[in-house]
Amino acid sequence: CTFCIFPFFSRLKPLHRLQRIQMSSHVEPEVLLEKVGRTGVITINRPKVLNALNLTMIRQIYPQLKKWENDSEVDIVIIKGAGGKAFCAGGDIRAVTEAGKAGGSLAQDFFREEYILNNAIGAYRKPYIAIIDGITMGGGVGLSVHGRFRVATEKTLFAMPETAIGLFPDVGGGYFLPRLRGKLGLFLALTGFRLKGRDVQRAGVATHFVESNKVLKLECFLCFCPQSSLDSEKPFVLEKHLSEIDRLFSSSSVEGIMQNLRADGSDFANKQAETLSKMSPTSLKITFKQLQLGAALSLQDVLVMEYRLSQACMRGCDFHEGVRAVLVDRDQNPKWNPSTLDQVSDQLVDKYFSSQTWDVWIKL
């Protein structure tokens, strides 16, 4: 069966026998932290905004994870989302953008503490199981992909769409994406391609797959959950394109990739060229270099690099313009600056990666 490799999971108690950890006095806490038998359970509880992650939530999750890691009465940790639509659709980017415009410190605090949490998940000494049932993007990827086990369902929708808002695939994207097979990670990073259901496992983002109606059983008795056969006969959505992706995205530059796509002329290549033409040119070049460097770095070093990048993006214009066009005004018509790839010089890209006086990092 799927989870029989975890012999101690059979000691889990049913969900109705839980010990709730004292939370704040809010009627609807944004994060629920519970002990279920010998399992720590984190529930992201902002379903009305697709469980978007904010700084307050990060500051609740991180210390509890560290506490459970040293608790001899906790064997595993499970993280899930409330509401049935999303695990976590990303960070609360609008709040970060507004604070940045007002000169507040949220843009620094949010990214720094989010990445510290991501690193803690990646280094967690106990089994960490993310049930990514529903939309899983951006910050939600950071809460899941670095854990030991990621369980997708037929409702999972995974993407790293940051190049469309003038950012880059952060939360450790520079670590896990270049470690996917071939050029698949680079393809996902540049295009923001959406993976659904079992394809999330086939791509290597999820480690396991179960049907959503069996998630509650999974939470109670992980080792007894049978292997799901749903959609097992369907091929990976990108299977027939993997060799094309490897060939077309094998280049020393984003411009080279665009040349490959346009020269190829296939429907698939034309569609990807059209997609990339809508993305921030600066974000595309930053992302390309991010994945190049990240392929040889540790997760911690990648997150340090991404913190520098995040702060440079906050100081630039494309991120604010992307958030305006996609999330605020929703006209889907961002005015990128620079507006073309050839206007984004290597010197400009290098500045995003250079350490500056504002590059302050809390020891991980």
Automatic annotation (TrEMBL):
InterPro entries recorded for this chain? ClpP/crotonase-like_dom_sf, ECH_dom, HIBYL-CoA-H
Q: Which SUPFAM superfamilies match?
A: ClpP/crotonase
Q: Which reaction does it catalyse?
A: 3-hydroxy-2-methylpropanoyl-CoA + H2O = 3-hydroxy-2-methylpropanoate + CoA + H(+)
In alphabetical order, the GO MF annotations are: 3-hydroxyisobutyryl-CoA hydrolase activity
What does the record give as EC number? 3.1.2.4
Pfam families in alphabetical order: ECH_2
Kindly list the places in or outside the cell where this protein is found, as annotated in its UniProt entry. Mitochondrion
Q: Name one GO biological process term.
A: L-valine catabolic process
GO CC annotations, alphabetized: mitochondrion
Q: Give the primary localization class.
A: mitochondrion
Q: In which pathway does it act?
A: Amino-acid degradation; L-valine degradation
**Keywords carried by this UniProt record:** Branched-chain amino acid catabolism, Hydrolase, Mitochondrion
Q: Which domain of life is it from?
A: Eukaryota
Enoyl-CoA hydratase/isomerase domain residues are: 40-353
The protein's job, in short, is:
Hydrolyzes 3-hydroxyisobutyryl-CoA (HIBYL-CoA), a saline catabolite. Has high activity toward isobutyryl-CoA. Could be an isobutyryl-CoA dehydrogenase that functions in valine catabolism. Also hydrolyzes 3-hydroxypropanoyl-CoA.
Q: Which family does it belong to?
A: Belongs to the enoyl-CoA hydratase/isomerase family.
User: What name does this protein carry?
Assistant: 3-hydroxyisobutyryl-CoA hydrolase
